[in-house]
């Protein structure tokens, strides 16, 4: 989303489907023509641009694009590549929770290397040269003979896992999600450079007032995914106990029932805690417990 020409930004590849779902949940409507990397949004004066994940921090950091969705690993790589004293133009707005993976140091499973320090002075292949250089610089020290060893970091754009078997590298630094690729290539992880999830980022220099509106819509969808709405009936005498179990985000909604000694309660509950909450509610006498999906939510912090 650009201030003048109203461009917004998005990502393809691994994060694409979750990002499209997020935009749809935020009611950002667009139609992307085949092979076009730009799409005008129908119901807001912005445009979406589809760019490789690795390029997004650059466009956002330069202020050419107002908002972006990419991996935290890519933001880290962008920032690590900045010249000394140069300030990043990228600010993280929100952790989006999906696209979880780790950037890990990997070596042949059958080899002698057991810790990252043993790769100092050797050949390392990666698509994340700046983060890897930074990581190994932190391990490099003065050798026993008084010299200093530099790890040789080489860039490859894909299939990084092949580098050790092909004799190009002693170790690699690559993303691991399920671990299947690493295992299939006969590699093992010995250290983690960065833990990553997808993030919403913005340009530090943006003046576009739509940035806050869009960020707030996206935050609403992410919050909604974390919570469910729990409704139940409970004897009024148990109201205090029930409120402790389901305090809600601010406070639970309590509604009187036609039956004098009973109330109905409705409260947002963290999705991951809902099973325990239902168990506890049953123990204090709640009945007719319903758990409802929340499509979207907005609160002052959103
Ligand atoms: N298994 C995974 N492998 C690689 N990246 C992953 C994985 N899981 C999550 N990610 C995240 O997805 C981000 C982008 O991945 P990907 O390389 O697919 O994007 P892209 O460059 O936009 O797409 P493409 O390479 O298809 O053009 C990574 O930087 C990382 O944050
Ligand atoms: O732990 P896993 O679930 O197996 O995922 C990790 C793999 O996925 C990525 O590669 P990608 O498939 O994006 O293609 P690439 O090798 O060309 O980068 C990454 O570079 C690893 O190779």
From TrEMBL:
One of its GO terms (biological process) is L-histidine biosynthetic process. Residues 53-220 form the ATP phosphoribosyltransferase catalytic domain. It holds the Pfam family HisG. One of its GO terms (molecular function) is ATP binding. The keyword Magnesium does not apply. Its EC number is 2.4.2.17. Coiled coil: none annotated. It catalyses: 1-(5-phospho-beta-D-ribosyl)-ATP + diphosphate = 5-phospho-alpha-D-ribose 1-diphosphate + ATP. Its main location: cytoplasm. Pathway: Amino-acid biosynthesis; L-histidine biosynthesis; L-histidine from 5-phospho-alpha-D-ribose 1-diphosphate: step 1/9. It is an enzyme of class 2 (transferase). It is found in: Cytoplasm. GO terms for cellular component: cytoplasm. PROSITE patterns: ATP_P_PHORIBOSYLTR (PS01316). Keywords: Amino-acid biosynthesis, ATP-binding, Cytoplasm, Glycosyltransferase, Histidine biosynthesis, Nucleotide-binding, Transferase. Residues 224-296 form the Histidine biosynthesis HisG C-terminal domain. The keyword Amino-acid biosynthesis applies. NCBIfam families: hisG, HisG_C-term. Belongs to the ATP phosphoribosyltransferase family. HAMAP family: HisG_Long (MF_00079). PANTHER family: ATP PHOSPHORIBOSYLTRANSFERASE, ATP PHOSPHORIBOSYLTRANSFERASE ATP-PRTASE. This is ATP phosphoribosyltransferase. It comes from Talaromyces pinophilus (Penicillium pinophilum).
């Amino acid at each position: 989303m650009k201030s003048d020409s109203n461009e917004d930004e998005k990502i393809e590849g691994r994060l694409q489907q979750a990002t499209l779902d997020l935009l749809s949940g935020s009611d950002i409507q667009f139609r992307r023509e085949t092979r076009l990397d730009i799409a005008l949004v129908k119901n807001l004066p912005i445009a979406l641009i589809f760019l490789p994940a690795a390029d997004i921090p650059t466009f956002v950091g330069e202020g050419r694009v107002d908002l972006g969705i990419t991996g935290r690993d890519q933001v880290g790589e962008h920032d690590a590549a900045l010249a000394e004293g140069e300030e990043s133009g990228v600010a993280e707005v929100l952790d989006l929770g999906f696209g979880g993976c780790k950037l890990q140091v990997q070596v042949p499973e059958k080899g002698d290397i057991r810790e990252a320090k043993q790769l100092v002075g050797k050949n390392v292949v990666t698509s994340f040269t700046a983060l890897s250089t930074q990581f190994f610089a932190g391990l490099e020290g003065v050798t026993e003979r008084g010299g200093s060893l530099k790890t040789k970091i080489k860039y490859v754009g894909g299939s990084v896992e092949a580098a050790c078997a092909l004799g190009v590298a002693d170790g690699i630094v690559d993303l691991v999600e399920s671990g299947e690729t690493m295992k299939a290539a006969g590699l093992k992880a010995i250290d983690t450079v960065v833990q990553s999830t997808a993030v919403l980022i913005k340009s530090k220099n943006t003046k576009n007032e739509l940035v806050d509106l869009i960020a707030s819509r996206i935050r609403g969808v992410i919050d909604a995914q974390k919570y469910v709405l729990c409704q139940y009936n409970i004897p009024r005498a148990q109201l205090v106990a029930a409120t402790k179990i389901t305090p809600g985000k601010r406070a639970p909604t309590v509604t009187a029932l036609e039956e004098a000694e009973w109330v109905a309660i409705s409260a947002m509950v963290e999705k991951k805690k809902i099973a325990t909450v239902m168990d506890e509610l049953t123990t204090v006498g709640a009945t007719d417990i319903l758990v409802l999906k929340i499509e979207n939510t907005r609160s002052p912090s959103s």
